[in-house]
Each structure stands twice: as structure tokens, then as C-alpha cells.
Design a protein that fits this description.
- The chain is mainly alpha-helical.
- It folds into three domains: about 180 residues, Growth Hormone, Chain: A; about 55 residues; about 200 residues, Growth Hormone, Chain: A (Up-down Bundle).
- α1 packs across α24, α2 crosses α10 and α10 runs antiparallel to α18.
- The longest helix has about 40 residues.
- It is globular and about 80 Å long.
- The termini are close together.
- Its main location: membrane.
- It comes from Devosia psychrophila.
- Belongs to the major facilitator superfamily. EmrB family.
């Protein structure tokens, strides 16, 4: 059996004693970190009351984490080379766990924000580093299955985050949203210590200027996206300043990396066509996935009148469908053209978004569940092949930098998506309200037949009608957002067709490569 495996599998970049348990440790840490991007959302009102913070202030609990993680993510490649992947991973998980405990015992908003920054800094390297290790310990023939396992954590955790956070908050206390990380973190550190091997340390000089420019651009972008709506976007001088910092930081960073002798990031990774196209696709996926998760809870709660827990339960089947599809696609990816799987996934997403454009105030919760299941199932078929093709032709020495940039692109897509749909929602609510109100004229037959008291100028009638118009305008605005997400999904189709699979090498294997394959087969 081992001989058969050795004949069909190439040698991985890193041989480990127990790949299964190491994979479990990597995914445990990844799920713990990714879960914290959404698990605290539903607990914000309870946090505000407990910490004595205003509603507009408590959002810094989310913003501080996102900004810190965005700035620290690009450091993954350099730190992994400088101190070793195992040591970096263990420091990151320990730091994230300690920061989670501090968040759970915070007594004021400044303390909470400071501890969330620590969480973001330590947690930023966990997901990209886990992906790097998974790519290194698996032969290229099993990269698809490895990315399916990785995708389960990256995609499912944010979806179930609000549901788990709502249950913990209602059943226990909001502090358990953070304290739940303690046992998970301890277990992950123990498993990493036992099963993760040490890797070679490379003495790379740290490019302070390059990192500073990238941090400036990414940090300013996150601040602009998070605070833009509150500042009425480009009517505020703050937004213009932040935009200027984004353009300046990213432009100088690119020029510096192209001209410096030892830049912070080797931009040659973007010469790989698959990686560049996959990064653009991942940006679009980030927009459509997390913007939908941001839109549905307020729609269900404010327009449909569902309680927090029930709205979270309604969204849970989406995560189950994603989990199921990733199991299926993990078995298909070596047998079916990955581009066909991705096109099927985009088709499912587009179909579900088209169904969401028919939502109405009179419907029950079943359309939300069915469209969510279809969309979640499609996300699995899109995400797993996309991850596999993105790194199919990337040289192993570039993987740490490539995974950190891929994670950064995904997070930027998340931020852009949430800000985009929020801005469209706010703008279209005003437009739709004005258009609906214009139809309520004294000569309108509907007004004469159904609301005659409105013609008499009754203040109560005017208030009731205005409430109904506002509600309908809000529903139409959500539909406008769903149409926008549908168009963005369809825009990804041409990019999928340009992707290429890895080239098969006809070069005969050396005796050393054959020995590595036999060692890997025995480890299997």
C-alpha cells in the first residue's frame, strides 16, 4: 500500500510524523482566531452597557481588531523566516489566548480596545501561517484536499460566529465570547508543541520603510472604510486625509519594493498569473461573502422583527451547507477541472442572490434559509479550488509571503464589501423614500381609497404612513444591495476562465525525491 502511494504522490516540502494531528492543531488555532472576527458582533450592546460606552464608541471593539490584524498580517512571511514557523505559531497562539482572557476581564472601553489590538496583532499571523504549513506538509496532488480543510475553518467560522456569540451572550455573559478561547488556545499550543517540527531559520533583514508604507496604506484604508459612513464619506476632511494616506502609502510601497535591494515583500509572487488572478477573485469573494453576513442580521431584526437569537439560528444552515460542500469538493478537486467547480460555485451564489432580490416584508423566514443554503453551498465550491489554484504554481520559498498577502487581500475585500453595501443601503434608503413619497399625492387613487385621513392632514395618519414608507424604502434598499452583490459575482466569471492548472513536469525523479516520497508514504 505504501509503495502504491509513493508511486503516485510527489514529496511534500516538509515531512512530519503525524500529519493528521498537526492539521487538527493548525485548524483549531485558525478557527479560534477567525471566529473572533464575527463572534463579538451580537454582544456589542451588552458590552456597551457593561463598559459604560456609547453605541458609536463600542464599535471600536471591532474596528481596533480589524485594523491591528490588517497591519500585522503582512509581517507573517518575514517573522516565519526570522524565528521559525513553529516558534512564531506558538507565540501567536499564546499571545492571542492571553489577549482573549484580558478582553474577557476588561472593565472599561480603553482597556477593551487595547486588548483587542493585542488580539489582532497576535492573531493576524495564525491563518496565513496555518495555510503555509498545510501547503508544505502536503504533496501537490493533495493541495486541493488540504485547502478544503483549511477552507472549512476560514469560511464556516465567520458564518457561525454570530450564532455562537448570541448563544453565549444570552445563556451566560458577553465575556464568554472571549473566555471560550482559553481552553481552545491551551489545547492548540500543546498540540503544536508536540506535532509541529522546527523549520529552517533565514536571516532576512527587516525592511522598516517598506513595512511602514504598507502599514500606513492598509491601516488608513481600514480606518476610512470603518469610519466613512459615520463621517458622511467624502463630505468629511478626515476621509480625504485617510484616502491620501492610502494612495501615498501603497504607491510608495510598490515603488520601494520594485527598486530596493532587499524589499519587505518580493513582488515577484505577482508574476504568477494564477496567484494574481486568484487574489482579485478572492477580493470579490470577500466582498460578497461578508457583506451578505453584515446585511442579513439588521434586516431580519429591524424589518422582520426577529429576535437576535432567532435571526442567528436562521443564518446557521448557511454554514452547514458550506461545510458540506467543502467535504464534497475536497473529493472532486483531483478528478474534475477546478475551474468547472468554481463556475458551479459562482452559479450557486448568483442564483441565491437573484432569489434574495425577491425578498419582501410579507415573506416568512424560509426564503432566507433556502437562499442561504444555496449560497453557502456555492461558496465551498468556489473557495477551495480558488485556494488550490492560487498556490498551485507558487514556488515553496514564496509561500509564506504569498499566504500573508492572500489573507490581506481577503480581509481588504471584507472591509470594502461591508463599507460598500452600507453606503449603498444608506443612500438608496433616501432615494427610495423620496420616490415612494412622491407617489402619495392628493390625486392618487390608492390614497383616496385606503388613506383618506392623510388628505385631512391628520398628524397620526402622516406618522403611520411615513413609517410604512420608511419600512418599504429600507426593504427596497436591501434589494438594491443584493442586486449589486449579484453583479459582482457575475463579474468573477471571466477571471475564472483565465486561471490555469499546475503544469505536470516530465522530468524524471531523482533518488533523493524518491526517498522523500517513500518517507512521506510511511508517514501517511
Amino acid at each position: 500500500m505504501a509503495k502504491a502511494v509513493s508511486e503516485t504522490l510527489s514529496a511534500p516540502a516538509l515531512i512530519v510524523k503525524n500529519k493528521g494531528l498537526l492539521t487538527a492543531a493548525l485548524m483549531l488555532a485558525t478557527v479560534m482566531q477567525v471566529l473572533d472576527t464575527t463572534i463579538a458582533n451580537v454582544a456589542l450592546p451588552h458590552m456597551a452597557a457593561s463598559l459604560g460606552a456609547a453605541q458609536n464608541e463600542i464599535t471600536w471593539v471591532l474596528t481596533s481588531y480589524i485594523v491591528a490584524a490588517a497591519i500585522a498580517t503582512p509581517l507573517t512571511g518575514w517573522m516565519a523566516d526570522r524565528i521559525g514557523q513553529k516558534r512564531l505559531f506558538m507565540v501567536a497562539v499564546i499571545g492571542f489566548t492571553v489577549a482573549s482572557a484580558l478582553c474577557g476581564i476588561a472593565t472599561s472601553l480603553p482597556e477593551m480596545v487595547m486588548f483587542r489590538v493585542l488580539q489582532g496583532v497576535f492573531g493576524a499571523v495564525i491563518a496565513p501561517l496555518a495555510q503555509t504549513v498545510l501547503l508544505n506538509i502536503n504533496p501537490k496532488e493533495r493541495i486541493g484536499q488540504a485547502m478544503a480543510i483549511y477552507g472549512m475553518g476560514i469560511m464556516v467560522a465567520p458564518i457561525i460566529g454570530p450564532t455562537l456569540g448570541g448563544w453565549l451572550t444570552e445563556s451566560f455573559d458577553w465575556r464568554w465570547v472571549f473566555l471560550i478561547n482559553l481552553p481552545l488556545g491551551v489545547l492548540a499550543v500543546f498540540m503544536l508543541f508536540v506535532f509541529m517540527p522546527d523549520t529552517e531559520i533565514k536571516r532576512r533583514r527587516f525592511d522598516f520603510f517598506g513595512f511602514g508604507m504598507l502599514a500606513l496604506g492598509v491601516g488608513a484604508l481600514q480606518l476610512m472604510l470603518d469610519r466613512g459612513a459615520d463621517n458622511f464619506w467624502f463630505s468629511s476632511m478626515e476621509t480625504w486625509i485617510e484616502l491620501g494616506l492610502v494612495i501615498t502609502g501603497l504607491w510608495v510601497f510598490v515603488v520601494h519594493c520594485l527598486t530596493a535591494e532587499n524589499p519587505f515583500l518580493d513582488l515577484r509572487i505577482f508574476k504568477d498569473l494564477n496567484f494574481s488572478l486568484a487574489s482579485v477573485l478572492m477580493f470579490l469573494v470577500g466582498i460578497t461573502l461578508f457583506s451578505g453576513l453584515a446585511l442579513l442580521p439588521p434586516m431580519l431584526q429591524s424589518l422582520m422583527g426577529y429576535p437576535v437569537i432567532f435571526s442567528s439560528v436562521i443564518m446557521a444552515p448557511r454554514g452547514v451547507a458550506t461545510l458540506l460542500s467543502m467535504v464534497v469538493v475536497g473529493r472532486l478537486i483531483g478528478k474534475v477541472d477546478p475551474r468547472l467547480l468554481m463556475l458551479f460555485g459562482i452559479g450557486c451564489m448568483a442564483y441565491s442572490l437573484y432569489g434574495m432580490t425577491s425578498f419582501s416584508l410579507q415573506m416568512d423566514y424560509w426564503p432566507v434559509i433556502t437562499t442561504g443554503v444555496i449560497q453557502g453551498f456555492g461558496m465551498g465550491f468556489l473557495f477551495v479550488p480558488l485556494q488550490a489554484l492560487a498556490f498551485a504554481t507558487i514556488a515553496p520559498k514564496y509561500r509564506a509571503d504569498a499566504t500573508s498577502m492572500f489573507a490581506l487581500v481577503r480581509n481588504m475585500g471584507n472591509g470594502v464589501g461591508i463599507s460598500l453595501v452600507t453606503a449603498v443601503l444608506s443612500n438608496m434608503m433616501q432615494v427610495n423614500h423620496a420616490e415612494l413619497a412622491e407617489r402619495l399625492t392628493a390625486t392618487s387613487q390608492n390614497v383616496i381609497n385606503q388613506m383618506p385621513s392623510l388628505l385631512g392632514g391628520s398628524a397620526q395618519a402622516v406618522a403611520i404612513v411615513n413609517g410604512l414608507v420608511t419600512q418599504q424604502a429600507a426593504m427596497l434598499s436591501y434589494l438594491d444591495d443584493f442586486w449589486l452583490m449579484l453583479l459582482l459575482s457575475l463579474a468573477a466569471i471571466p477571471l475564472v476562465l483565465l486561471l490555469r492548472g499546475p503544469k505536470k513536469s516530465a522530468r524524471p525523479k531523482t533518488e533523493e525525491e524518491k526517498a522523500l516520497e517513500r518517507a512521506h508514504a510511511m508517514a501517511e
